UniProtKB/TrEMBL annotation:
Heme binds at residue 206. It comes from Fusarium oxysporum. This is 25-hydroxycholesterol 7-alpha-hydroxylase. The keyword Cell inner membrane does not apply. The keyword Heme applies. Transmembrane segments: none annotated. Its cofactor is heme. GO terms for molecular function: heme binding; iron ion binding; monooxygenase activity; oxidoreductase activity, acting on paired donors, with incorporation or reduction of molecular oxygen. Keywords: Heme, Iron, Metal-binding, Monooxygenase, Oxidoreductase.
Length: 287
């Protein structure tokens, strides 16, 4: 009986959401996601009642899935599609984090990779900045007035889409919409840690962000030094069309990209990772 909604507040709040979707469906914006439009179309063609359609569409307010693999994909894409940048990253990784030779075997010093390869990390974080499309949601704990005109009432929720935050020119400068591989290097004046929300927004950040970044950096380092990757047909597409039908925080391309992976002979051999005793955290933009 304790959790029984006797006054119907929960049902009333839910109805507000349903009504909002009804209004939204009548005038869809031009940039609405493909999956939303197709889901709406299929339900309408099936003769589903409008009220039930609104209730079904309201279920989109759920957690999205998959980020590590697609963001690693895009980091590889952004890096290997820029030959000059690729050579810089290779040089950095080889000089700072790789030891050994073909006879004795090569080793990647993971601690050095985490702390001494700022350009490699910057490429990864810049990819995150431009590719993440998720939104952070926070509950308003007390009435808050923003900029003297926006009142956030206690008990309500605020949704903070990452894409507008990550491409805001007032925060990131005139190149906010462009890929700048040096943006997150230490000597860059464009770094804005408080406006980087790929891992979430304080006080709640992804607890596995250090682990995820470490595994991605390892894969990137090994691929960069050991291989050449190029499209089988033609050149890299600068802005490939995205599959916005995915329930994901990072969209994947609509069309698969066939690539040729060639070993670099000078670095062909046995490879191993040296984790070391270091517990040093990676200097991520979000902490």
């Amino acid at each position: 009986m304790v959790n029984l909604d006797i006054t119907g507040k929960g049902y009333a709040a839910r109805q507000i959401v349903f009504d909002a979707f009804r209004k939204y469906n009548k005038n869809l914006p031009s940039d609405v996601s493909f999956i939303y439009k197709e889901r709406l179309r299929s339900m309408q063609e099936a003769g589903i009642d409008e009220d039930d359609i609104c209730k079904q569409q309201a279920t989109f307010g759920t957690a999205a899935f998959a980020n590590t693999v697609p963001i690693m994909y895009w980091t590889i894409y952004e890096l290997f599609s820029r030959p000059d940048l690729l050579e810089e990253v290779r040089k950095e990784v080889i000089e700072q984090a790789v030891s050994g030779d073909k006879e004795s075997g090569f080793k990647v010093d993971v601690a050095a990779l985490k702390t001494k390869c700022p350009l490699t990390l910057s490429v990864f974080q810049e990819t995150q900045r431009l590719r993440h499309v998720h939104a952070n949601i926070r509950k308003v704990t007390e009435d808050t007035l923003l900029d003297g005109k926006y009142l956030l009432k206690a008990g309500h929720y605020v949704m903070m889409p990452g894409q507008p935050v990550h491409t805001n020119t007032s925060t990131w400068g005139p190149t906010a919409g462009q890929f700048d591989p040096y943006r997150f290097t230490k000597d860059s004046s464009d770094r804005k840690a408080s406006s980087f929300v790929a891992w979430g927004a304080p006080p709640h950040l992804c607890p596995a962000r250090q682990f995820a970044t470490t595994e991605i950096l390892i894969v990137i380092a090994l691929l960069t030094v050991r291989s050449d990757i190029a499209p089988v047909k033609g050149e890299w597409v600068k802005n490939p069309a995205l599959n916005t039908g995915d329930m994901a925080t990072v969209y994947t391309p609509k069309k698969s990209v066939e690539v040729e992976v060639r070993k670099r002979d000078d670095w062909d051999g046995e490879w191993s990772l040296r984790m070391g005793e270091s517990k040093t955290r990676i200097s991520l933009a979000s902490g």
